[in-house]
């Protein structure tokens, strides 16, 4: 089979102009032309485009991508292994960054009573107060914000490590639940949704079921939150949102 430039652009989520540019510079030359002279792409062309987009997503310049793909001694499987290694490393870095964002967005890191050395030990090279101004602007006048400020101001390094460990353990268990195809409205998912709410209540502020529902919606609508949960497992943000709604309904109906 072969495909038009418009079809390929739709498959890959790129613009027709991008494909024209790749063709012009010899990075992705369409294997065929129609009788009218229009580009037609083969399955092999699509495979090459996928490799190009992988490397571009990882930040490689076009010249280096071309050199990598046109190396006559390169094994296609070696490309995939290298990309997997690079993506895995990037995912881990993004996971850590997203975790720090989540802490900040829920006012978890406001008023930290930690030395610079302790902050680095707990949070790595992510600034825990990166979104402090946004947090204060959005929730500064609420009782929940004040409660979180009061509690977290006294937390030690060990407290924050425990908080992160509990959150990581919860995330692993929720990912396993999804891997087992448990529905968000099932008992297991609602139990973990309730545990999620209780974690907030224990460490940060009194999280009512209504507040928890609002958080669930934010986990889906705010790309920073969604990225955090999607790294744990694709689709987790929506699954958790639905489990939160179901759990709130069974406790408030």
Automatic annotation (TrEMBL):
PROSITE patterns: HTH_MERR_1, HTH_MERR_2. The keyword DNA-binding applies. Coiled coil: none annotated. InterPro entries: DNA-bd_dom_put_sf, MerR-type_HTH_dom, MerR_fam, TipA-like_antibiotic-bd, TipAS_dom. SMART domains: HTH_MERR. Pfam families: MerR_1 (PF13411), TipAS (PF07739). Keywords: Activator, DNA-binding, Transcription, Transcription regulation. Residues 2-71 form the HTH merR-type domain. This is MerR family transcriptional regulator. It comes from Streptomyces tibetensis.
